[in-house]
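User: Could you check the structure of this?
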Amino acid sequence: MTTSQTYLVGGAVRDGLLGLTVKERDYVVVGSSAEALLTLGYQQVGKDFPVFLHPTSKEEYALARTERKAGQGYKGFQVHATPEVTLEEDLLRRDLTINAIAQASNGDLIDPYGGQEDIKAKRLRHVSKAFSEDPLRVLRTARFAAHLHHLGFSIASETQALLAIICASGELATLAKERIWQETQKALSSQSPWIYFEVLEVCGALHQLMPALAELLSRRPHALNTLRLTSAASTRTEVRFTGVLYQLNKPQIEDLAKQIKLPNQHKALALATSNHQRQLRAYTELDAAQKHLLLNNLGLMRHTELLDDLLCLCQAITQTQEPLFGWQSPKQPILDDLERIHAVKPTSLMAQGFKGRALGEALKEAQIACLSRSKT
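Assistant: Sure, the predicted structure tokens are below.
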């Protein structure tokens, strides 16, 4: 009878060796079965995938498995998980060698494919030629390149060649839009998110997955500079991504949002910045009516909390487009103007007999009048 053994695998081992914060722990169980884990109280995730949640910690425990390409796309694999599958066989199906290191309960490392050596060499290298069977690995490799760029990691030339082969195969078209956004969002949360888009551009994936961005980078080689600046100033993914997206027009942003299932808050910030960043950067030069229209269009009259994100983007855009000119944030003047606008109450106008559309127009005129008086 085979005795089951449990190993820590993947990102937790990798990040531990790199001295990075370990955010989550995944385990592989060798020599066991789904029935055995269910008997112990583990909860299976999905019907056909041998991954289970620990009964108390809720961490993921996967049965050791092998995979065989049986169809198109990243879901086109037949999974084989039995007690006979070895740890080495399980690690062989993983994407990069630095993610194919296991750690036993006593701390010993099992590293059959040279992951530790690649960590020392700061190299992202595929485990086996089966790497090219899964189109999702293009996005994952680009994400890891962004995640580890600050430590000096780069993609091995032979792995770079496989990325191009995958892109030429047409299988990127099988990726679910939600999964594209999931990987992109993780990359935007990394230390160097611009590297993600650079990797995708070089291998040809960006043209297929986000054609408007590929066209932008072909016209403006420095289009990612604002992303660099926003990444230094904010950890919010919607702010960081808008550092690229604001350079697109409304139809392009709308199309891209559909292509990658961009969340509404990300799309709204990108559209607002694309449409109004020039006026916002010149806010103090606008007249009262222009200020009122701008604040209304940006949604700041109802959502003042958006102001910091918008001004962060304006600062980065100014640094990118006009690096020789300083820019003084109009935050306080805008907050003062919003306070004046909110001080105008519709009740006083209603008492004068205004209602319906006429009330809205009168309220608007009164608010603009308050902004006009503030300049004197």
